[in-house]
Amino acid sequence: MTTNGWSRKRARPWFAALMMLGALSALSACSGDSPLDLSDTAPGGAGKEQIYPGGVFALNYSPNYIHSFRVTGPRGMNGGGSNMSPSYKDGPAEPGEVCCIGIPQPWQPNTKLEIEWELDRSPYDNNLQNGLEVMRATVTIPEYGPKTSGFWAIFLPRDRVKVMVGDGNANGHNDLNIRPADDDPFVVQGVHDDAQTKELRERYR
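Below the sequence we write its predicted structure tokens.
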């Protein structure tokens, strides 16, 4: 399939703007160095909580084309990204950075997010409906430190996913240089969304 044909297969309106934080794409604060907001008292009586803007990134270790993904969660952790090729022989595929998402400081235990992603299991097939599916999962964010390097969604074979905040691997669960192990406690199995898959395929009739 030609590159142009592949692009046409993927073409669709971008999902809703990345909430209010998307308007901050011009800020250099996407590195997480400057606080965006000061929230109310943090859960558990931990005191005031600062919300830092951070870029959204992804790694694709799966054999599928990831058309788009989005995450929704508490305290400004809403955002997404798009357009990841299937994994390469020598490592994961990755898209460009998307700005921005809120990264609360300090990290709070048991912070959960919902992630939904559109994938194509037959990325080189000319039939627009072949292989299109929507998956979703509820993920827990591993502990991260005060110095962060963006928000990451990591897609793995067999429709598994891990979501984390990069922090220089402060606690052993956030190393971006190593593919997550099969027994990583933060890797979650995705669930097929029948209704969203049907809607997605109808879009390409």
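Helices lie at 3-10, 194-203.
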